[in-house]
Amino acid sequence: MSGSANRPVRRRAFVLGTAAAVGTAALSGTASAATFGWSDDGTNYVVDTGANLVFKVRKSNGDLSSLVYRGTEYQGYGGMNSHIESGLGTSTVSIRQSGSTILVSVAYGTLRHYYAARSGENNIYVWTNKADDSVSATRFILRTRPGLFLNDEPDSYTYAPTTIEASDVFRKSDGQTRSKHYSKLRVMDYNYVGWSSGGVGLWIVRSNHEKASGGPFYRSLLRHQSADGGGLYEILYYGQNQTEAQRFGLQGPYVIALTDGGAPSSSLFPGTLTTSWADSLGMSGYVGASGRGKVAGVGISGRNTAYAYTVALANSTAQYWGSARSSDGFFSIGGVLPGTYTLTVFKGELAVHTTSVSVTAGGTTTLNTIAIPSSNDPGNATAIWRIGDWNGAPSGFKNADLMTYAHPSDVRAASWTGNVVIGNNETASFPCYLWKDVNSGILVYFRLTAAQAAAAHTLRIGVTTAYANGRPQVSVNGAWTSAIPSPPTQPNTRSLTNGSYRGNNHTFTYSVPASAWQTDTGQYNVLKIDVVSGSGTTGYLSAGTAIDAIDLLA
């Protein structure tokens, strides 16, 4: 990050590739024969970290043009270098050494990009400052040579020759699907991505994403692999299924780390990494630890202890988050830029409380126990029946887990059609996604007592995102049909087919009159749920929506 961050994050070490030992590897060793320093070969600045890593930065455009670790070149495929977006073009590139740090600075229009090396480390610390939208820079991609880390993971398409959607979703001959979008993980779930093979680990340790968008539950592509080579990403802004506007400013550091095959050191992880050594380097937009503040909460009452709670801070310039302690809801979020933020408490991924909090440089904003009103959690309402849980995600629904790393057409997916009977494993039987052209018109069967059938009831359908304005219209027993609801604000890109159900949570409510119910208590009532929209195309790209929970209130 820009400066140091002491906020807690989930310390999960996910290796997205061929299995590498998950553990703590020390910062790569101190030099023995090599000498820390830099040189100019006419085309590139050549940096020797004094350990086992030598890298080059192209003087004309700031590309990372070589990455040699223990004498082996890892950088590049298809004649392309590693760089911001698809490369910046003609740039002003400079280099200087300050004691045990070497900084390469790249200026392209309003964008500033930096590579830093520390003596005796096999790491490259990278920062990117996108000041405005005049420059297209939404990612850094580390390109790796073919044949070094081949794999057959969900985000690989090495063995998936058939294109089934756009130019980035593929099907293997066995019917399994592959795409660089299928990372499985939310941003809060991982600290690094990469591969390990032959006693070498190549990783990108993510930044704290304070200048990214989408919050802690956001999903985006993290890496890809094919016969042509591989790519590791640090996403600066990703437009797919995005819920927030782009943020600008300095993002980083994200760290290119090479190891002896083990995981990168936890001292590089967001939340533990400190960069006081960078305070005096003069990077544009850099704010050190002394210019940042902290938010701490005594606890959170009114929680449902069956769920994990997350506290997030967000404004137009920055975002942060931390986990609430399961015992009492205590939380602490450090390394926060000064400003006023919306603080949101999430039950699972469902927002159940918001407030405003101000942060000052060098200060700690301490909050008394946050009380979540019972009415803020829809799961507290008494229901005659309920499908799923009100947690902001389609967890537990049919195919829900698979959809974070596969296309809906994947051979492993259970049938998207089929009716549901309350009392007969209804959540696992109900599909996590509904589409106008695939499974619209799903039927839910349920019985009511005489007293329940004599009264009107509220039906609720919670959704987590929608594609092409897909939204539910319902009918009961063919006797009553709801109006077509207005579409809520949702992302306008693909979502359900590229591994993400995360959009804007919304609850549709329907007032069902007593006249709609069966009067014979021995008969099933039949709820029909259709997906309506005038947008979308066909199949899995027809209008659709992801389900959080469905219930009929008492």
Could you characterize what this model shows?
The structure is a single chain. By secondary structure, the chain is an all-beta fold. It has three domains: 37-287, Beta-galactosidase, Chain A, domain 5 (Distorted Sandwich); 292-375, Sandwich (Immunoglobulin-like), CATH 2.60.40.1120; 378-553, Sandwich (Jelly Rolls). It is built from two helices and 38 strands. The chain has helices spanning 426-429, 450-453; strands at 37-40, 44-48, 53-58, 64-69, 72-73, 83-84, 92-98, 101-108, 111-118, 123-130, 139-144, 162-165, 169-171, 177-179, 192-197, 200-205, 223-226, 229-235, 249-259, 293-297, 300-301, 309-314, 319-323, 331-336, 339-347, 350-359, 364-367, 370-371, 383-388, 420-421, 433-435, 442-446, 457-467, 471-476, 480-481, 506-512, 525-532, 544-553. It has a seven-stranded antiparallel beta sheet with strand order 7-8-9-10-19-16-15, with no helix packed on it. Strands 1-2-3-4-5 form a five-stranded antiparallel beta sheet, with no helix packed on it. The longest helix has 4 residues, at 426-429. The two termini are 49 Å apart.
- Report the radius of gyration as a whole number of Å: 26 Å
**Category from helices, strands and their pairing:** mainly beta
What is the CATH T-level topology of the largest domain?
A: Beta-galactosidase, Chain A, domain 5
Largest β sheet strand count, sense and barrel closure: 7 strands, antiparallel
Report the count of strand segments: 38
Overall 3D shape: globular
Strand percentage, roughly?
Answer: 35-45%
Biggest sheet, strands in spatial order?
7-8-9-10-19-16-15
Unreliable spans are 1-33
Broad CATH class of the largest domain: Mainly Beta
Q: Which architecture name of the largest domain does CATH use?
A: Distorted Sandwich
How many domains, in number, for the residues?
3
- Continuous helix count: 2
Mean pLDDT: 93
What is the straight-line distance between the termini?
49 Å
EC number: 4.2.2.23
Signal peptide: 1-33
Protein name: rhamnogalacturonan endolyase
GO molecular function, one term: carbohydrate binding
